[in-house]
Amino acid sequence: MSTKKFVLSFILLAAAILGSNSLFIVNEMQRAVLLEFGAVVRADIEPGLHPKWPFINEVMKFDARVLTSDAPPERFLTLEKKAVIVDSFAKFRIDNVATYYTATSGDETRAEQLLKQRINTGLRNEISKRTLYEVVSGERDQLMEVLTSAINEVARMELGVSVVDVRVKRIDLPPEVSQSVYNRMNTERDIEAREHRAKGQELAVGISADAEKQREVIMAEAYSSAEQTRGEGDAESAATYAAAFTKDKEFYKFYRSMNAYRAAFSTKSDVLIIQPDSDFFKYMNQSEN
Question: I want to staple 152 with a disulfide (CB 3.0 to 4.6 A). Which of 38, 126, 163, 282 is the partner?
């Protein structure tokens, strides 16, 4: 290879190296800063192709998407000085690239550690203002809203990140107090169950008494209606008999005598001492003639 070709090749190679070091690309999922000897000269560079001075400028790129910081479970004290173990996480994204680089040197792990410290501090402050019931269920949503707002303000100012959300995955009691709390909860639920049973039995007695009362009223009304119907039937029957017997008085006497004989001789043990010519045997004597 001639000296001229070697020089030309060297120049082309040097130009390619300089050209590749004079341009950089930032995509839509990245945030970037331009450094000059370690100092930020241009922050929050938009996506696209950008120039830089080779060997003088350096480009730092960071993930612009929403990231997750999963904090380890920590022990906190409530307003009643009861210990709880809280497992939480946070969603955040880079908001101010220059502040983020200055605070963390572009190290995402360090950013997460600093954010976890602030989350734990916020949780400790907020939980210490609330009772165990409020922390677990009563004001849990309100607690998260207040905590997210407070941490977001501090994180944006100190770390250059925006906290999207802070959530508690679970809240546990320390092992040494869990059993006593569970026993107390069981006792409270047992008392509540007994109260519900007592109220149910009271309602059942009331319903049974009301049903018995209604049954007695219905039976009385039915008996009254039956007696009234029976009385009306007897009256109508008597009127019919009276009308029939009025037409033939002798038949009425005969009918009454037959009823008297049936009643007197219904059993063989009956004994009557009556004169044979009495009116009682009037129709018997006539039957012999």
Answer: 163
Q: What is the Cα 123 distance to its own chain's centre?
A: 26
Whether residues 59 and 99 share a domain: the answer is: no
State the pTM of this model. 0.51
Taking the CA of residue 170 as centre, how many other CA atoms within 13 Å lie in the half-sphere pointing to its CB? 5
197 confidence band (pLDDT: 50, 70, 90): very high
In this structure, the answer to whether residues 53 and 77 fall within a common structural domain is no
Give me the percent of the chain exceeding a pLDDT of 70: 78
* Residue 37, phi-psi category: left (phi > 0), alpha (psi -120 to 50), beta (remainder): left
Answer yes or no: do 55 and 71 share one domain: no
**Mean pLDDT value of segment 11-36:** 69
User: The domain containing residue 32 runs over which residues?
Assistant: 3-63
Strands in 57-63's sheet, in edge-to-edge order, are 39-42, 30-36, 57-63
Beta strands in the chain (DSSP E): 23-26, 30-36, 39-42, 48-51, 57-63, 67-70, 74-77, 83-94, 161-172
* 156 belongs to a structural domain: yes
DSSP class of residue 130 equals: S
Nearest CA among 132, 118, 140 for reference residue 77: 132
Q: How many CB atoms lie within 10 A of CB 161?
A: 26
What are the C-alpha distances in Å from 157 to residues 36, 150, 186? 24, 11, 47
- Amino acid residing at 62: F
Asked if the structure places residue 145 within a domain, the reply is yes
Same domain, 20 and 102: no
